[in-house]
Amino acid sequence: MNEKDEDGETALHIAARNSYKEIAEILVSHGANVNEKTKDGKTALHYAARDNCEKIAEVLISHGANIDEKNKYGETALCIAKLLSHTKTEKVLISHGAK
Predict the structure, then answer these.
(1) Helix ranges, the chain (H)
(2) Where are the annotated ANK repeats, by residue (predicted)?
(3) pLDDT by residue (tens digit) across 51-88?
(4) CATH number of the domain that 38 lies in?
(5) Which domain holds residue 74?
């Protein structure tokens, strides 16, 4: 479930970056680690923010994603959403207490 590829991505990372909400839901309901990091320190929530997938962000947060986790560049999901002007995802993150 939490196997990683050469970049440190898990199936959940791949589902998040491809906007596969249903697959993300199945993975987390079967124990996928929502806080697993890639080699660059990115979580699935970072990917959801980058790709403006507010529905996946909701799934990840509801399953315990660390909303203020930083990648190796010091960026949180909220930083990424703001930088890319992804207002839908930004609103979701803020509504759940992202700083």
Answers:
(1) 11-17, 21-29, 44-50, 54-62, 77-83, 87-95
(2) 7-39, 40-72
(3) 999 999 999 999 999 999 999 999 999 999 999 999 99
(4) 1.25.40.20
(5) 11-95
Please check whether residue 3 lies inside any domain of the structure.
no
Residue 23 in contact with residue 15, Cβ under 8 Å?
A: yes
Give the position of tokens 């970072």.
46
Among candidates 85, 95, 81, 72, which has minimal Cα distance to 45?
81
Q: Which two tokens stand for residue 47?
A: 């990917």
Question: Dihedral angle at the C-alpha atoms of 5, 7, 12, 17, nearest 10 degrees?
Answer: -130
* pLDDT score of 2: 87
Residue 37 identity (one-letter amino acid): K
Q: What is the pLDDT of residues 3-51, one digit of tens each?
A: 998 999 999 999 999 999 999 999 999 999 999 999 999 999 999 999 9
CA 59 – CA 28 distance, rounded (Å): 8
